[in-house]
From TrEMBL, chains A, B:
<dbReference type="InterPro" id="IPR036282">
    <property type="entry name" value="Glutathione-S-Trfase_C_sf"/>
</dbReference>
<protein>
    <recommendedName>
        <fullName>CLIC N-terminal domain-containing protein</fullName>
    </recommendedName>
</protein>
<dbReference type="GO" id="GO:0005254">
    <property type="term" value="F:chloride channel activity"/>
</dbReference>
<comment type="similarity">
    <text>Belongs to the chloride channel CLIC family.</text>
</comment>
<feature type="domain" description="CLIC N-terminal">
    <location>
        <begin position="39"/>
        <end position="117"/>
    </location>
</feature>
<keyword id="KW-1133">Transmembrane helix</keyword>
<dbReference type="InterPro" id="IPR053823">
    <property type="entry name" value="CLIC_N"/>
</dbReference>
<dbReference type="GO" id="GO:0005737">
    <property type="term" value="C:cytoplasm"/>
</dbReference>
<dbReference type="GO" id="GO:0016324">
    <property type="term" value="C:apical plasma membrane"/>
</dbReference>
<dbReference type="Pfam" id="PF22441">
    <property type="entry name" value="CLIC-like_N"/>
</dbReference>
<keyword id="KW-0472">Membrane</keyword>
<keyword id="KW-0812">Transmembrane</keyword>
Length: 306, 306
């Protein structure tokens, strides 16, 4: 179990102090201001399969982490994040079958996404944080993206089995190409939405739950595309790429983001693919930059200055 | 993967036909009436660690199964339930890290409790099924019961470690007794609520989401209490026991209920306790009867005729 205190200065800091690796909760906390009466929310997120001190690639975990970060940033709550190895005896015993994300507040344990969201919703409402505004158009546009991506991942990795390098997208049989086309179409429709709206985040100038949902998924699509599928988000989707750039400039996203190696490891584990030592021994890195040409186009259009 | 078709006559039938155990979905379906346009909802629930064709002790799975059963019973939806071995390669590959319960409708995959509930909520609303009526009193009364039970389970099994039989409740040190007292207090407060309301289910004459939440948890408390902790729901809580009896007479509960052995196995697994062969080899049984004296008292008061 490893803890991540919330601190906007953490990015340039050394890794947080670990008090004692053998205890269930080796956490310390940084407070954002003096308020002792602020609720303290602890979020347990899935650890990486490579190193249980590192953040694993759990999308719901990152989603809630981002939402909590938003509450933390404006001083509504104190937040601590801890990584947990779900296979450890200590974890199983403490949570008796519950899976991360798990949120704890005083003596309350939230082990259900509905309850975690309910509590965050309540806090956001109490302090008028516009984190949960509804927008059916956005909801519809983003809802099946990740499911479609999973279908593509499965079909493509099956097809690539035994090959030294992933097959070229153009050479794919129609049955697999159909999954690819669906992804690209949907990415294009999100690009179009962003172009129409001309907003920084999906709903406006500030982050909402839709961004907490979409940003981590887009990043997984990018990393897994690049490292496993021979696929990239099409470079002509400039508004979508600009949105990815926004993610890379959003502290809530960066702090909660697993390393590339940990994302890749998660998918390989699920797909029962061979993990080579290079990945598990590499120093973790995070791809939070854009392809040169895409960045150039974004700058040319002035999108990054919104 | 093993499937459970919905049929109210299933209780007295032989186990459902398995077409092909090696396919991912070896399901057949029974239709409740003719309506081909009814949505078909497939629920994937966690399989037992003893036998992946048997239902495992996953509380969220049973909760949604019960809700879906309610929709099925009144003819709103067709439903199929399948058990999945979460450790199998086939499962991991198909769902890429998602955990049961998972619901599938046509090409939509719901892997998040919020989304599963959202879909069931929507269907219930569309057909005016009063499954999601709100009652803050009930909500408050039941919310921390299971969390408190988990604390008790952990403390008590730790204390019992190495003993041949579970220690008597009366002999427990104060630090553990406190957990026991909290459970009993809370069970008594639910008993009082039921006594005040004089209703069959928590909110009235028909089952709501609160019952789908409480009934499985009460049953786990009973089975684990009996088989692991030397604890029983106090026999003087007649209204609570009558509510348990209601569960045992509710098809949605019975059909979705794991066998005693599978419930016990789940807790032992999480607690890292030794599982003896007797449990894994036993024919699965379901305790769906009440202690004689309690049943006598219920009948004397006429509670079971409500």
């Amino acid at each position: 179990l490893h803890s991540y205190p919330f601190s906007s200065s953490l990015l340039s800091c050394p890794p947080p102090l670990r008090l004692d690796h053998h205890r269930m909760a080796d956490a310390y906390q940084l407070q954002n201001g003096a308020g002792d009466k602020k609720p303290l929310l602890e979020l347990y997120v899935k650890a990486s399969g490579i190193d249980s001190r590192r953040i694993g690639a759990c999308l719901f975990c990152q989603e809630f982490w981002m939402e909590l970060y938003a509450l933390y940033e404006i001083g509504v709550a104190r937040v601590e994040v801890k990584t947990v190895n779900v296979n450890s005896e200590a974890f199983k015993k403490n949570f008796l079958g519950a899976q991360p994300p798990i949120m704890i507040e005083e003596d309350k344990q939230y082990t259900d996404n509905r309850d975690i969201e309910g509590r965050i919703f309540h806090l956001a409402k109490e302090y008028s944080v516009p984190l949960f505004e509804k927008d059916p158009t956005v909801e519809k546009r983003i809802e099946s993206l990740y499911r479609n991506f999973k279908l593509f991942v499965r079909a493509k990795t099956d097809f690539d089995k035994g090959k030294k390098v992933p097959a070229d997208i153009e050479s794919l049989p129609a049955a697999i190409k159909i999954h690819y086309n669906r992804i690209v179409e949907q990415l294009a429709s999100i690009d179009q939405l962003l172009a129409d709206r001309q907003t920084r985040y999906l709903l406006g100038p500030s982050m909402t739950e839709y961004d907490c949902e979409l940003m981590p998924r887009l990043h997984h699509i990018r990393i897994i595309g690049q490292r496993l599928l021979g696929f990239d988000i099409p470079h002509n989707l400039t508004h979508l790429w600009n949105y990815v750039l926004t993610a890379y400039r959003t502290a809530a996203f960066i702090e909660s983001c697993p390393a590339d190696q940990d994302i890749l490891h998660h998918y390989k584990e699920q797909l029962n693919l061979f993990t080579n030592q290079r990945e598990t021994l590499q120093s973790p890195t995070k791809t939070h930059t854009l392809p040169e040409s895409v960045l150039g186009e974004i700058k040319r259009l002035g999108l990054d200055r919104k």
